[in-house]
């Protein structure tokens, strides 16, 4: 990865650490947050050239109990990606996009029936666009609905569906909800919330000695975003589809703050450019690319 991109990654990591340090001074319960700097190193594109990016993913949320059976929450999300393309011949020699921003708000509502079923509904509104994109043309919206139940003390299972009006595309998908404490050390869960980018994925974690945990997981991710109005594909649509496969190592730092280190690969990656109406212009597959990241998770 070129030196300027690495420098921006370092700045993002320092910014993330600063946000976490402010939050450490608070005490639970209340608001939860996460900050995750991520780097995907360069790998080859099928038609020539390569691509890489650095990102910072941030979220902030809270929940209120409305009564004994229902709850309401608010989740805010802000993602930033800085892409670097080197001689991407498959896009006509042009860099298809550069700096991407995603900002969204979700309002999760949950209701538990007298029979123990948990019903969930989470509407979401999100902006997804390159720097210079038209704001009104870069909005996505939709919702997930789910039903789950603790079938026994160590196992919660459920199913859900997500429907989203994305940029020049409507998507719908099912997803699995699982929280299975297989034994005192082994646990199978969903690593991500289901949303516009896709289902929640799966992660198998193992509790090591001295408070450490290790895990392995994967998920399917699909991001669409409006392109710069003055870029090489004016007002077009970009799409980034991939399957991150990862291992993680983490532990609690304090009662209110934990961290995880991630290493893995972005597999099955496709980068796509469409015109302003969603018609395909270019599509490139990318070789598997190494990824590194750290996640800080806490409450205040």
- Assign the CATH topology: Porin
Helix content: under 10%
Question: Which class in CATH terms?
Answer: Mainly Beta
Strand content: over 45%
H/E element sequence: HEEEEEEEEEEEEEEEEE
For the largest beta-sheet, the strand count, sense and barrel status come to: 17 strands, antiparallel
Number of discrete domains:
1
Shape: globular
Please give the CATH architecture: Beta Barrel
Indicate the multimeric state. single chain
Number of strands: 17
Given the helix and strand composition, which structural class is it?
mainly beta
Distance between the termini: 36 Å
Mean pLDDT: 90
Spans of at least 5 consecutive residues whose pLDDT stays below 50 are: 1-29
The number of helical runs is 1
Keywords summarizing the entry:
7% helix; mainly beta; single chain; globular; 17-stranded antiparallel beta sheet; 300 residues; Porin; disordered N terminus
Report what the structure shows:
- The chain is mainly β and 300 residues long.
- It has one domain (3-299): Porin.
- Helix content is 7%, strand content 62%.
- The protein is built from 1 helix and 17 strands.
- It has one helix at residues 3-24, and strands at 32-44, 50-65, 70-86, 99-106, 109-112, 117-130, 139-152, 155-166, 169-181, 186-189, 202-207, 212-218, 221-226, 237-252, 257-274, 280-286, 289-299.
- The protein has a 17-stranded antiparallel β-sheet that branches.
- The longest helix is centred in the N-terminal third of the chain and has 22 residues, at 3-24.
- It is globular and about 55 Å long.
- The chain starts with a helix and ends with a strand.
- Residues 1-29 have low confidence and may be disordered.
């Amino acid at each position: 990865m070129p030196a300027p991109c690495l420098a921006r990654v370092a700045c993002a990591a320092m910014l993330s650490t600063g946000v976490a340090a402010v939050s450490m001074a608070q005490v639970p319960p209340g608001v939860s947050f996460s900050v995750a700097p991520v780097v995907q190193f360069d790998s080859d594109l099928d038609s020539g050239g390569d691509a890489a990016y650095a990102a910072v993913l941030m979220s902030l949320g809270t929940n209120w109990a409305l009564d004994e059976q229902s709850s309401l929450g608010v989740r805010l999300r802000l993602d930033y990606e800085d892409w670097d393309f080197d001689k991407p011949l498959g896009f006509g020699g042009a860099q298809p996009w550069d700096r991407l921003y995603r900002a969204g708000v979700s309002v999760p509502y949950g209701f538990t029936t007298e029979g123990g079923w948990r019903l969930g509904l989470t509407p979401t509104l999100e902006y997804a666009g390159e720097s210079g994109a038209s704001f009104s043309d870069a909005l996505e919206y939709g919702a997930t609905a789910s039903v789950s139940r603790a079938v026994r003390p160590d196992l919660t299972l459920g199913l859900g569906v997500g429907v989203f009006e994305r940029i020049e595309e409507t998507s719908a998908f099912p997803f699995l909800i699982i929280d299975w404490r297989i034994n005192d050390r082994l646990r199978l869960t969903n690593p991500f919330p289901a949303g516009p980018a896709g289902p929640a994925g799966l992660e198998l974690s193992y509790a090591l000695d001295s408070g450490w945990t290790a895990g392995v997981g994967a998920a399917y991710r699909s991001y669409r975003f409006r392109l710069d109005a003055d870029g090489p594909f004016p007002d077009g649509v970009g799409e980034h589809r991939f399957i991150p496969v990862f291992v993680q190592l983490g532990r609690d730092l304090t009662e209110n703050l934990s961290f995880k280190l991630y290493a893995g690969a972005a597999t099955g990656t496709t980068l796509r450019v469409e015109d302003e109406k969603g018609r395909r212009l270019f599509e490139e597959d990318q070789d598997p690319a190494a990824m590194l990241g750290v996640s800080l998770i806490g409450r205040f």
